[in-house]
């Protein structure tokens, strides 16, 4: 019984020493703030589009999201839905489907190619051609609006 109590006490001390430590990598990350918004194309909400925020400075991390059926999105930088680091960003928005092309003579064999279809104007899919921008304030935002047109 004496050894059991001593063992329990030793385990308690050991386990409590393991808890409560801060991950040094997480502690070094720039702070994120909540950030969300909506994407429309010619006035219609866009479902399944990838929204990418590319920072104006090379020191901050990018943020990304996938739009819901109503076009809304919540940005992620490190952990799901954690938002974005405050700052200025260029924004790209893409929605694509990729169809695998099989060999008609060997449909069970390896694919012979693929066909990609873009559902949004290509100008929004590249940092060099997009005119979309976002500013994330230190308080965060829930009103990012990206209205895409032809």
TrEMBL record:
Keywords from the UniProt entry: Signal
SUPFAM superfamilies: Cna protein B-type domain (SSF49478)
Region annotated Disordered, chain positions: 131-150
Signal peptide range in chain numbering: 1-19
PROSITE patterns: PROKAR_LIPOPROTEIN (PS51257)
Name used for this protein in its record: Carboxypeptidase regulatory-like domain-containing protein
Gene source species: Thalassoglobus polymorphus
């Amino acid at each position: 019984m004496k050894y059991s109590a001593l063992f329990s006490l030793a385990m308690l001390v050991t386990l409590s020493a393991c808890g409560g430590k801060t991950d040094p990598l997480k502690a070094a990350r720039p702070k994120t703030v909540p950030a969300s918004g909506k994407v429309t194309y010619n006035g219609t909400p866009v479902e399944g589009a990838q929204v990418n925020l590319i920072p104006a400075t090379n020191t901050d991390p990018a943020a990304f999201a996938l739009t819901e059926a109503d076009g809304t999105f919540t940005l992620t930088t490190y952990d799901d839905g954690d938002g974005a680091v405050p700052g200025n960003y260029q924004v790209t928005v893409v929605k694509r489907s990729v169809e695998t092309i099989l060999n008609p003579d060997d449909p069970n064999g390896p694919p012979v190619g693929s066909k990609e279809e873009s559902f949004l104007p290509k100008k929004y899919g590249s940092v060099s051609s997009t005119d979309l921008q976002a500013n994330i304030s230190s308080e965060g935002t829930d009103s990012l609006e990206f209205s895409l047109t032809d």
